[in-house]
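hi! just following up on the protien thing from before. the input was this:
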Amino acid sequence: MYDVVLLTLGSERDAPGGCGSGGACCGGATDADTNPGTEARDRDGCATERPRVPVLACADALNARGARVQTVTARSNAEIDEVLAQLDGPPRPDGLTWPDLDGKTRLVVATASDAQLRAVLRRLVRRYAPAPSRRPADLPGDRTVPDLPPVAVLPLDPARGGAHRDLAAQLGLPRDPAAVAAAVLDGTPRRLDLLRNDGGSVTLDGALLGAADDAGRPLHWRARVEVDDTVLTNGDEPLSACAIGNAGGYARLDDVALLAAPDPADGQVEVAVAVPVVVRSPLGRKRVRLEVRRARGRAVSVLPREGKVPYLDDGVEGELTRKRSWWIEPGAWAVWSI
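and the predicted 3d structure came back as:
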């Protein structure tokens, strides 16, 4: 029978500043690895006294099937890493830390947001990605990370399967705790693409660059956006938005379709820019429409031409001030599914 670790990040809050979101606790903040005070601050600000009801229900369902269940609340990157160490494989001759895909330990991540799931995947990548100088021969040629251990996703907010389609809803993953337990014990790994970026993080769903004013009107900005060898814009024209999609969470901007058919398992990233264009009616009246340009490829780069560009990346807020590149890692991570 399996050992199952039920991992919850240290905050129940799903809001800006909650665990897993930018500048926050439990692995979600991009500065957590560079700011020595981050983890101490996180530990004080994100404590939760007991697991939430879906976690307890999932643990009960797993116990009823004979699984050995460990419930862990991690309040720092170090505590997440302690859990992930249980997924390590046996020592290798080259000294690399490598996942054990045939091991008897399975991981369930209880998430209040996609940002929290991303926080755990970020730590998995940091744990298992070899340095370029130590790239082993058994690493796939189109990847920088090995096959990461599958994770089961336990959504903590059932409402996110409705109007707001989180990643679990997009992938058709179970939300009921008993169904999640069944996927862990009886399911098979469904391998998915992962976006890495040169800022040291990962993207599971997608990113949306741009912002709006208090009235909801898009604020214009400029950047060079390039997908492989295709230039969607060279930075000379204003943009309303740029969507970088692995899955479909950022496929629309209000009533405008940005991404046509993002697929989290096709080995490509889909990118779109929305360019405001002034057109005249037959009567000579001016109006603005959005021209959407799209491209698909293995990598995308965005180079801001002026100021800061706000963005959401898997629900995490940030500001882009210099060139950022994302690239696809085909089939790098996996979820347990029936």
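Helices lie at 38-45, 53-64, 77-84, 114-128, 167-171, 177-186.
The chain has a mean pLDDT of 87.
cheers
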